[in-house]
């Protein structure tokens, strides 16, 4: 198994989770000083695998991560009530997806 630690960083961030070779690795929760919070899988000190990012502005991403960025399948809920469900590549919407707008209108297509 991995070592479990709680770390308080000088910049005000906090990590509660697993480590391997002094890197965040395994399961863990990272709380950013600005109020953002990532809860999920880590690999080589970066979000990687499945995880949820709750942003301090009320937005939320839940899905796949690769090398610290949204990548694969995921759902992004915007503060204005819109929601995108679909494919992500290197942090951006890309490929097949659908956007459900706050007024319940839906757009399905390529992004």
Polypeptide structure, described:
- With 111 residues, the protein is an all-beta fold.
- The chain is 0% helix and 68% strand.
- The protein has strands spanning 3-8, 14-20, 23-31, 37-43, 46-54, 60-66, 69-77, 83-89, 92-100, 106-110.
- The chain has a 10-stranded antiparallel beta sheet with strand order 1-2-3-4-5-6-7-8-9-10, with no helix packed on it.
- Strand 3 and strand 4 form a beta hairpin.
Task: Summarize the structure in short.
With 111 residues, this protein is mainly beta. The protein has no helices and ten strands.
- SSE order, as H and E? EEEEEEEEEE
> What fraction strand?
over 45%
| Neighbour order of strands in the largest sheet | 1-2-3-4-5-6-7-8-9-10
Indicate the overall shape: elongated
Question: Which quaternary structure do these chains form?
Answer: single chain
* Computed Rg: 15 Å
Q: Terminal Cα separation, in Å?
A: 40 Å
Largest sheet: 10 strands, antiparallel
Number of alpha- plus pi-helical segments = 0
Helical percent range?
Answer: under 10%
What's the overall average pLDDT, rounded?
A: 97
Structural class: mainly beta
Question: Helices, strands, pairings?
Answer:
Elements: E1 3-8, E2 14-20, E3 23-31, E4 37-43, E5 46-54, E6 60-66, E7 69-77, E8 83-89, E9 92-100, E10 106-110
Antiparallel strand pairs: 1-2, 2-3, 3-4, 4-5, 5-6, 6-7, 7-8, 8-9, 9-10
């Amino acid at each position: 198994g991995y070592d479990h630690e709680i770390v308080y960083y000088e910049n005000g961030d906090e990590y509660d989770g697993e480590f391997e070779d002094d890197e965040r690795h395994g399961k863990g929760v990272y709380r950013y000083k600005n109020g953002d919070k990532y809860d999920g899988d880590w690999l080589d000190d970066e979000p990687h695998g499945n995880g949820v990012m709750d942003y301090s502005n009320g937005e939320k991403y839940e899905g796949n991560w690769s090398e610290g960025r949204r990548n694969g399948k995921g759902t992004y809920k915007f503060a204005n009530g819109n929601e995108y469900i679909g494919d992500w590549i290197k942090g951006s919407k890309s490929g097949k997806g659908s956007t459900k707008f706050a007024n319940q209108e839906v757009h399905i297509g390529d992004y």
